[in-house]
TrEMBL record:
Residues 2-347 form the Amidohydrolase-related domain. This is Amidohydrolase family protein. Keywords: Lyase. Gene3D superfamilies: Metal-dependent hydrolases (3.20.20.140). InterPro entries: ACMSD (IPR032465), Amidohydro-rel (IPR006680), Metal_Hydrolase (IPR032466).
Amino acid sequence: MIDCDVHNDWSTAEVLLPYLDDYFRDFLIRGEKPGPRGTFPRAQRAWLHPEGFRRQDINPVTQDDHYNLMKEHLLDKYDIDVAILTGDETLDISTIANRYYGNALASAYNNWVIDEWLSRDRRLKGSIVIYSPDPENAAAEIRRVGEHPDMVQIIMSSGSIRPYGDPFYHPIWEAASQMNLPIAVHLGGQAGINTQTFSSGPPTFYWEAHALLCQAGMSHVASTIAHGVFEKWPNTYLILTECGVSWFPTVLWRLDNDYRALRKETPWLKRLPSEYARDHIRLTTQPLENPDNKQHLWNVLETFDAKHTLLFSSDYPHWDFDDPTKIPIPADWRENILDANARQVYSRLPARDSKSHS
């Protein structure tokens, strides 16, 4: 089983201090920390969870607790072969206006996760966090860390100053292609300089906002296809993490229809949008919509061949964690979604029979 969205956290952001130079170390020690948890310098979220983000049965105190609880409640409990770490508070660095500080924090986090997490357990694999508003330096960070064998993807938050197919971001895609790493876009980063979150303005309640955050995923799908990202870099993948699933085929239907009518705008495209999506875009299961009639969901999933394109994710240890034994998918799809599909996308994962835990 491969879990494609496991959040590794810290007891305090001060764990990054040894990885920052004196100038930015002073920022972290003395600077304002307005985040909801008060541990990381980021723009304040507009929508605060009324119960907190972490599961109530998981309450780490020390840094060691974070790993030990993950091992108990996820890795060992469900016999996970690979857990892809996706960070947590660091996903919000792209909301910071100071690009120099944002890049420094990204590099510090990447060094910390290699030292503190990847060395603990062979099952753990890392994601390269980048400061996406500065694509040239983000690309340099990808190349700096991208040779590490246990860094298996690049990760950005879904909140952004532009949709991710825009040529502004092409240095990032170029570096991803060079390193043969997929790019994961994870739900989050809706604050600070990333102000274009909802198409008609901000909602009021957390649950309302959470249900609507798939809008950013729609924009990134349309943008990467329309700007020809997958024509320019045919070895790349876009993984939408925690962005929902059921909206995906309807957006592709609309894109196909409009492309047929207006293809003269984008002569660099050689295929239908849905064909690019089939080969280059993957979605993770959490949160997988769960209607009263499961067959309704399965019918939707079949329209984009989810048996071969959907990746399992638990979102551990967040409040909406999904138990891998209970996700509502057909029984004959489970082997693909829980394992085989991810191995196709993540080229650095070990062979299926080489299971070696620390």
